[in-house]
Amino acid sequence: MTSIRRWLLTWLILGLATSGLIAAFSIFQMSRDEANELFDYELRTVALSLPANFGDAGASSATPDFGGISDDRLVIDIWDQQGNLSYQSIKGLTLKRYPKGYRTIERDEYSWRVFGVHQGDRFVQVAQPISVRDDLAIHLASRTLWPLWVFIPVTIVLVLFVVSRGLEPIRGLSRVLSARTSDSLDPVQVDGTLPIEIEPLVDELNGLLHRLSVASQAQRTFVADAAHELRSPLAALKLQLQVAAREGTLVAQDHTLEHIEQRLNRVIHLVQQLLTLAREDAPGSLAAAPVSLRRLAEQAVGDLSLLAEAKEIDLGLECKGGTQPDDRYVVIAEGRALTTLLNNLIDNAIRYTPRGGTVDVVLLREPAGITLEVSDSGPGIPQEERRRVFDRFFRGADAQEQGSGLGLAIASKIVERHHARLTLENHAARPGLAVRVAGLRPDGATS
After folding, report:
1. Which letter does DSSP use for residue 70 in this model?
2. Which end of the chain is more exposed for a tag (fewer CB within 10 A), N or C?
3. What is the CATH number of the domain that holds 307?
4. Which residues pair with 385 in a beta bridge?
5. pTM value?
6. Domains of the chain: total
7. Could you give the C-alpha distances from 412 to 178, 282, 284, 408, in angstroms and in order?
8. How many other C-beta atoms can be found within 10 angstroms of the C-beta atom of residue 174?
9. How many CB atoms within 10 Å of residue 416?
């Protein structure tokens, strides 16, 4: 996957490094040209400054003082009118006589710069190694280039900072999107001024979210309308079936009527669950208010006690960690949603608990909030199915009880809307499943 940041940094830093190398080479070349001009002028000055009798027999043969110029490894050769070498500044190092003017020669794998000039009846030739000029050029270039070596790291740091700040709006947009829930279809709002380069992306993203919101709303409306339209005819059909069975006008063999009623009850339950799911899917802010979780739990246990008695299941409510004996476990939540949550969890537990089992509803006050737990003695849920049980209409491979496969999906929606955590764990020492809703926000006035 291509990274804009890596691409920008790579090309900017490579371009900067290449420009720096080209600049360094150019500065070295200019320093070398300046050194050549300086030393060529030095050679000419030395040659023209020699005394007229320098190198003649009987005259002093000591090299004159040229103010330090002669220290730069100069070689001075003088030839007389007859072409004989009359003076040699360095014994054993003899360069042949070249025509007058400047030239570069090679001798013993070394390069020399030579200048020759006629002075009356003699010929003066001054030579100097090219290496002296290169050393001076490197010295001049190093003194000129040191600001460049400081400038390049500073510029790289500046490039890193500028690229990082330039891409910050994209990272901000990523943080905004990662913080959204899976069902949030509201327009994206980015803090601060949005760069004009990012505005088309955000506008198109908001357009897509709007289209998805319209489609999702249409789907929820269809499900709610269909379930609402089905609920009344199904209830009327059940009522007519019961009346006909009671009056004896409907005759059936064996358990046909019982099977018809069971399937009818299952369809009615499915329609009711679809209505509940459509209501929980509907967007909107949570109408949270202080509500007694203990009162709601007592009411749910009472409403489902007949279903538990029919299967000889021991259904009870237990309160732990209360601040006082009559602690009401007041939480900031939506009462209707918590009632639906309790009914779904307890109903599921009763359905999957075998006859003669137990179902316990536990309220626990903890430092992180109030926890609701529904524990049963049923078969539990295999580890490989834990993630999928929250999917709509999913039923386990070993599920024997009738159901719609929507109970835990509805519970998950309600828990998510209350910013709590829903977990499923099989009991370690005995059969059964514990469904925990942790992190319900307690009311500060009563906690």
Report:
1. G
2. N
3. 3.30.565.10
4. none
5. 0.46
6. 3
7. 20, 14, 17, 6
8. 10
9. 16
